[in-house]
Design brief:
With about 210 residues, the protein is an alpha/beta fold. The chain contains seven helices and five strands. This is ISXO2-like transposase domain-containing protein. InterPro entries: IS1016-like_transposase (IPR053164), Tnp_ISXO2-like (IPR024445).
């Protein structure tokens, strides 16, 4: 329970081992299991698709150089700080990215992207009401329309910080890490409720039978 407490507060494993006087490998193993709980909850209870008419999402992709893979993000601007959907992908081609966009949004959603070629047919997706583009070769904010992908940039910065604190991640662990971050964004809540929310999630996956009187 003490490890769960520190885990839900997003404390580094080094601090957990020091605070609880645990062996580092033991603390790491427990945190991995807790991370798996978050990942399973995201898979079992999807929070997508995002809200439809009037909603705006920002799409972007980032290369994970050490893992030789890409991560694609669809970020909702409905919340502050922003929340998103993040998926590890092998390639950032239209055949991979467009189905993910369609999966993440309801009909009537406006989509903002940069000018990467894979996004050229975004406006053909059934759930897309409008597609607006910012040309990064010239500027990060379109001076004519004000379109930008700042929320996506902020999300990447936050995700990158978490990876640095873990001193890098193996390629096979990337998606579980992003699932954990998504769980924190969508279901964790603030520091005053996140442990209670995590315990509730834990109970969904490991129900305890109530003894018969």
């Amino acid at each position: 329970m003490k490890v769960i407490f520190y885990f839900t507060l997003d404390d580094p494993q080094k601090r957990i081992t020091q605070a609880l006087n645990l062996n580092q490998s033991v603390a790491s193993a427990i945190c991995c299991r807790l991370q798996d709980v978050c990942s399973a909850d995201v898979q079992n209870r999807p929070f997508t698709p995002f809200r439809g008419p009037g909603a705006v999402v920002k799409c972007d992709e980032r290369r994970r150089a050490r893992q030789d893979s890409w991560v694609f993000g669809v970020v909702s601007t409905q919340y502050t700080p922003s929340r998103g959907y993040f998926q590890v992908v092998e390639r950032r081609e239209a055949g991979t990215l467009l189905p993910l966009i369609q999966k993440c949004i309801l009909p009537g959603t406006e989509v903002h992207t940069d000018d990467w070629a894979a996004y050229r047919r975004v406006n053909t997706l059934p759930n897309v009401a409008a597609h607006r583009v910012v040309f990064r070769a010239h500027h990060f904010v379109d001076p004519r329309t004000g379109v930008h992908t700042q929320e996506a940039e902020s999300s990447w910065s936050s995700l990158k910080l978490g990876q640095k604190r873990r001193k890098g991640l193996r390629k096979e662990d990337l998606q579980v890490y992003f699932d954990e971050r998504m769980w924190r964004q969508w279901r964790g809540g603030g520091p005053d409720v996140i442990m209670r929310n995590f315990i509730a999630t834990l109970q969904l996956q490991f129900p305890v039978d109530t003894p018969v009187p």
